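Researcher: If only I could read backbone structure tokens as easily as an amino acid sequence. Walk me, if you will, through where the backbone shape changes along the chain. I have put the entry right below:
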Amino acid sequence: MTQAVGGTRGTSRLERRWELFHRWGPYALLGTGTVLAAGTVSAVGMTRAEVYASGGLVVAALVLQLWWGRAARSRPGPSPAGTAYFALRTAIGFALTWMNPLFAFHAVVGYFGTERLVPRWLVTPGLLVTAVTVAGSQSGGMPPRGRTGWMVFGAVLAVNVALLLLFSHLAGLEEERTRAQAATIAELERTNTALQQALDENAALHAQLLVQAREAGVADERRRLAAEIHDTLAQGLTGIIAQLQVVAGTPDPATAREHVARATDLARESLGEARRSVHNLAPVALDRDGLPEALRKTVRAWGERTGVRAGFTATGTAEPLHEEVAATLLRIAQEALSNTARHARADRVGVTLSYIGDEVTLDIRDDGRGFDPRVRPARTGAGGFGLDGMRARAERIAGSLTVESEPGLGTAVSARVPLVRHD
């Protein structure tokens, strides 16, 4: 783009110089021819009549040039006035050169800017007339004298015409190059405009994406906190209520103290879980133990609270998992057990944690009343996130969750997640 701008500046500078030449060049060439012709009156053999006639033609050429200097401002291209000016200037130049060959300095101006004055079909004839005038001057003056004079005039005219054709060809190439350069510059400007528009659109899109990402982050954090509260506080409060109900319905003080103690432990655990959920930390159970042991204790405690026979099994070689993976599997197990306690009416529950290659699988099976997975239950005020919440947790860490169940035949929940080791 810098080269294009430099080329534009260079072209503008060249055009300004040509404008100066077209404006003042005819005066300078007329003055040069007049001075040289006046100094060679005797050498050329001009008669008195020719001297007076040439003086009158010089004045006429000066007046013509002054008129055209004003008229040209309103006629930038070929026009009838420009054609008349070119014809008169060429005729005066030819007449002056006929009387004194050195006036050809004025006639030579016909080589420059002809296309600015006359229609295209008159450009070549105008240049040929100028070439005849200049060739006559170069061959010794007009008219040629004798056979030799005409031969010299013909040879000089041929050379002038050849040079004229050559320079016309070069001028055409230069004009074509200029047009191509102008087209390139215009295309670059259009491209720059389109690029700027694209940059503006990208900036607006980037700002929009930032807003959407911020909103998505807020929504995701809300979902995380909601799921954490459901999996911790809601389940803890449900367990506390269950223990207190037992206390309210038993006359045995020892049994009451035992269930009150369990309710107190659940309250403390729920409080810790709430604090960790706010700070996005691992579950309390994972603070002290690895995932297998945390699941074993969770299943045992759940069985003691609910009175359901529950067992835990771990298979494969246990490995320390990334905190997010371990927390996700523990939360899924807690939610599945909570759903079993609320809905399944099961007698037995089995939880299996399996390390298989680059995956970890968690299976929770019960022998409860089951349900039809194709029927989506309506959410109630007492309901939770359930299967959707467990599935969302698994998918958040590139895992998956499947549910198999039939009415009267129990339920099996299986979560498969990548085995991401603890750093």
Observations:
- The longest helix spans residues 146-249.
